[in-house]
Each structure stands twice: as structure tokens, then as C-alpha cells.
Design a protein that fits this description.
Blueprint: E1 6-9, H1 11-15, H2 24-35, E2 39-43, H3 48-58, E3 63-66, E4 71-74, E5 79-83, H4 88-101, E6 104-109, E7 112-115, H5 117-123, H6 130-135, E8 136-138, H7 142-149, E9 155-159, H8 163-174, E10 180-182, E11 188-192, H9 198-208, E12 216-219, H10 226-265, H11 269-318
Parallel strand pairs: 1-2, 1-12, 2-3, 7-8
Antiparallel strand pairs: 3-4, 4-5, 6-7, 6-9, 9-11, 10-11
Helix pairs in contact: 4-7, 4-8, 9-10, 10-11
Length: 319
């Protein structure tokens, strides 16, 4: 395919160390990529205020995918430039479910992170970075705060070391219309609007930077990265599949019917290989580029359909 113009980096488990820091080797890799003219962007489940801290340390681009794809943000300001919030009633019900079952919860509302005093104590055991401290707002009850103030919620993050509790709350929230449940590790769940995912948001970010997903690469390690990885892989799959088909057909024509093909076209057999390669270049590459675009469009729809069917089957199996 054409040259990579953008690389999207997940943070936790990918660009960050186990101690939630940035290694000098990663900073150097980002520096070399940008020196080669490649955009390097952060694509994370974290809120923009936290993400900006790590984007600056990495030396990444200003634009970021944040809140698991529910928002686009700028590292320079720590402000969201685009938000995809959940329906208000669905957010209230989902927040009430995680509070009722007793999970540790953070709610992303634009640039503000809503937590309860208990949540502050629990998250404070491992979150001491400046970004987290700057954006948190402590409220007595998250569900009541969202309900009473009609807060627009982009994402709900809930954590527990008990897999049974996580499975229970995931099953309950999955029944709420207007939300999608995923995770970024085995000890958490993340709730967003069904329209939000890292792949969709990365496509928007690419457009803002004057490129597209066909010229993007991505690195991630968890469930909330799947749509992003699929989004950058689908154009590659379509392009490669089309080129393999074109080269395969033209190659077999050369091997099996070369002399007849040359005679029909009034060409010398000795020059036939060059003619065939010209067909591949003139017709095959444009067809492959069209295939990349079509594969992205159709593939995302099909993956969404099969993903929903798979999730429904899994939920029925747990009943």
C-alpha cells in the first residue's frame, strides 16, 4: 500500500510502562517517526486531561483520540474538540448499576472526571499523576449527580478484582438501550455510546490531519482497541486481496496462455511480461485502492453485525 502517514498509539499496556510512565526508548521511537514526517497520535481510553500529560511526554501530535473513542481532544489545551455522549437516561441507569453492585467507578463528562469519595480513595492508590488530580470532581453519588444535573456522559469506567461482579454488571448494563460495554483489561468494564469506538474516532482524526485510515497504522493490546486495529487493517486487507487477485490472474495468463495472449494482442512474447506488469500498474493499483475503500466501508458494517450477534449469543449462554 501507500506510505504510512499516521501511527496511533494506545497508552496502557502499549506505549506506557507497567509503572504508568513513558520509557526513553518509546520517546525516541516517536521522535524518529515524526522526523520521517509521520503523525504519531495518542489513542486511549483515558480522559483528555490525563491523556495530554502522556502525549506531551511522548512528544506526540496535538490531536488525540480519548475516552475510548467517545471524544477527540487536544493535548495543548486538554479540551475536547468532539464528544459522542450516551443518552442521558441510559447513562443514569448504567451509573446506578455499577454503584449498586459496588464497583469502583469513574465517569467521563467532557473534561471532568466524576468520582465518589470512596472511588477517590481507591483510584488514589495507583493514580497520582497530575492529569488525574487536575480533572477529578468528587460527588456523593455519581448516578444522582448525573440525574439531577442532566450531565452529558461520554464514558463510564468501572473496576473490580472480582470477575463474578464484573460479569454481573456487564450483563446488566448490556441490556440497557443506548450503550455499549467493552473493557481495556480483565479487571474493568467501559461503557460508551454504541456510536463511539477508537476506529471511528481515528477516522475522524485522520480526516482532520488531511489523511485517512488507508495510510494509518495502530498499536493496541485490549478489547477497546479492536475497532481501531480493524479499521486500519481492513483497507490493507482489501488492497492486498485485490492485488493478489490481479497479479494471480495476469501471472497465470502469462504462464498458461502467454503465446496465445501475445499473438492475439499483436505483441512479441519476449515483451509480454512488461505488458502484463503495465496492466497491473495501470489497472490493478487503482482497483486495489478502490477495494481498500470498499472493504473498509463494508467490513465495518459486517463486523458490527457479527459482533452484535456474538455478544447476544454470549449473553444467552450466561443466562
Amino acid at each position: 500500500m501507500q506510505d504510512i502517514q499516521l501511527i496511533a498509539l494506545d497508552l496502557d499496556g502499549t506505549a506506557l510502562t507497567p509503572n504508568n510512565d513513558v520509557s526513553p526508548a518509546t520517546v525516541d521511537a516517536v521522535r524518529r517517526a515524526k522526523a520521517a514526517g509521520i503523525h504519531v497520535v495518542v489513542s486511549t481510553g483515558r480522559i483528555c486531561g490525563e491523556a495530554r500529560e502522556f502525549a506531551v511526554k511522548l512528544g506526540a501530535d496535538d490531536l488525540m483520540v480519548t475516552a475510548g473513542g467517545a471524544s477527540l481532544s487536544r493535548a495543548s489545551t486538554g479540551q475536547c474538540t468532539m464528544r459522542m455522549s450516551m443518552p442521558w437516561e441510559a447513562a443514569v441507569r448504567a451509573a446506578a448499576a455499577v454503584e449498586r453492585i459496588g464497583l469502583t467507578v469513574m465517569v467521563y463528562a467532557g473534561e471532568t472526571l466524576l468520582i465518589t469519595p470512596y472511588d477517590e480513595m481507591e483510584f488514589g492508590k495507583y493514580k497520582s499523576n497530575e492529569g488525574f488530580l487536575a480533572v477529578k470532581r468528587v460527588v456523593p453519588s455519581i448516578a444522582e449527580y448525573i440525574a439531577n444535573d442532566h450531565v452529558s456522559v461520554d464514558k463510564i469506567f468501572a473496576r473490580s478484582s472480582d470477575p463474578v461482579m464484573l460479569q454481573m454488571v456487564r450483563a446488566q448494563i448490556s441490556q440497557i438501550p443506548g450503550v455499549r460495554v467493552m473493557s481495556s483489561a480483565t479487571d474493568n468494564i467501559e461503557v460508551v455510546t454504541p456510536a463511539a469506538d477508537k476506529g471511528t474516532a481515528l477516522g475522524m482524526l485522520c480526516r482532520d490531519l488531511g489523511t485517512d485510515l488507508a495510510h494509518a497504522a495502530a498499536m493496541g493490546d485490549s478489547e477497546n482497541d479492536l475497532e481501531m486495529l480493524r479499521a486500519v487493517a481492513l483497507p490493507i486487507a482489501g488492497f492486498v486481496g485485490s492485488m493478489v487477485n490481479t497479479i494471480g490472474v495476469m501471472g497465470l495468463i502469462y504462464l498458461l496462455f502467454g503465446e496465445q495472449y501475445a499473438a492475439a494482442g499483436g505483441q512479441s512474447f519476449d515483451l509480454l511480461l512488461g505488458v502484463i506488469m503495465g496492466v497491473v500498474a495501470v489497472n490493478g493499483i487503482p482497483e486495489a485502492l478502490i477495494a481498500a475503500v470498499l472493504t473498509l466501508a463494508v467490513g465495518k458494517v459486517l463486523l458490527g453485525i457479527f459482533g452484535r450477534r456474538g455478544a447476544k449469543t454470549a449473553q444467552q449462554g450466561t443466562v
